[in-house]
TrEMBL record:
Record bears the keyword Transferase: no
Protein name: Folate-binding protein YgfZ
Assigned keywords, A-Z: Transit peptide
Protease found in the keyword field: no
Amino acid sequence: MVVIPEPASLSPTPMPDNPQTSNAPWFSLYDHRLVVLQGRDAVAFAQAQTMNDVAALLDGEWHWNGWLTPKGRVIALFALIRIDTDTLWMVVPDADADVLVERLRRFVFRSKVSLAVRDDLHVAGRLRASDLASGNHWAGDPATAIELDLSGDLDPGHAGRSLRLGPATGAGRDAAGIEAWRRADLEHGWPRLDATQSEQWTPQQLSLDRLRAYSVKKGCYPGQEIVARTHFLGQAKRGLGLVRATELLAPGDGLSVSDTTVGTVVSAAGDVALAVMSLESAVAGPENDESPAGGGASWVRMPMRGGLVR
């Protein structure tokens, strides 16, 4: 069996191309789609349905957010952008945006808000920090394009990440860029949930408090009671761990130590993955030896990167 060195000696896997160049190209994030909420009740509707404090956002700001089942399980995660008083944009990765919109529409009732998937508005990424946006402030003109900065804490030599949204991105497809983007999401602790992982995990199990992606104080929303109870009673027993493996992992794979399952893979990119793991077990994150995962692969737990809080 292959021995993986300790995390401290693991060198970072380089991103494809060279993000240090000033002309780092934009590429299509075709696994992301844009949902627009429009109307005088758009903010109130999102405040009542999503798990973060939308009312606290000012025009020109954005944050991480998600939608939960009544039992507090994450249906979908997204970046939520406040364009103005009556307009919100949701950048939805991986999830079926059409299904998400149809499910949300069931709760509109008499609210003055429309929801639509806007495939005429495209999502593009670039492996370079934004020249315009910073922190949770977006920049640009929604009529042409806006940018968000998603750099976080990257290795020296990496120039960050930018997200661009608008009617025309001028961005082609780049499989290597997509992989690098997904990998950066995972290394910063932002889970990428495919259909098999939807409605499986609570925000605490996905450690979304690291990114301030949910609120326990803003008032009622689907699943809020369970989320708040878990928070205030300290009942969370599992959280998210970043691992590197000798073989490719897939969502749903188990992570084991000495024939004991200690975690379940939530999302993966190349040789790295995010897994929900026991917070109490001393073997939850082996750091000095190899551990069988899935079909006999070995893995070690890695420290997550910071700097992606918005």
